[in-house]
Amino acid sequence: MGLIELGAAPTAAPHQGQLQLQRLLADLFRAHAKPLQRYFRRRGHGADDAQDLVQDVFVRLARCDLELITARPGCMVYRLAHFVSVDSRRRSQLQRRIGLAPWDSLGDIEVDDALPSPEQRLVWRQTIAGAVAAIERLPPKGGRAYWLYRVDELSQREIADIQGVSLKTVEKQIAASAGRFRAMLAIRENEAA
Does residue 47 register a pLDDT over 80? Predict the structure, then answer.
């Protein structure tokens, strides 16, 4: 199993950021491929599946911003590994429920496989769309800081390092953005009622 080739088409000269990302991904792959396989095996995935899941981690990692990866590369790798494991388990459950795959090596794990109704999924989509729209209306720097803090779950120190500002500035941006965000959601809820 090798690392997926990333970057532009062979005829195009790769961008400096792409080269840096490729080198970082190659280094991370060398350092984390075997430990990630063990990580997935400990979580009940088969050996063949573990290799595929490692590949999935690096595909997702390749789609991330270089700044986010370089802030805490090992943390990013294992955070994505957690998401890949959960997604794989959910996919397996769905396949079993509709008869596409036999029971796999998950053993006796009991999981509630009740899916939300189409109406509930619509409500969730609308809620998420409203929250994303509210975040997009925040001032650019404060909105990005708020997104990194709440969605990407980075620490305020990490955000300060990424944005090249002081920790106090990030704290103020997040606090101001959180207040604006709550106000926008309250207005949206009142309009919907």
Answer: yes
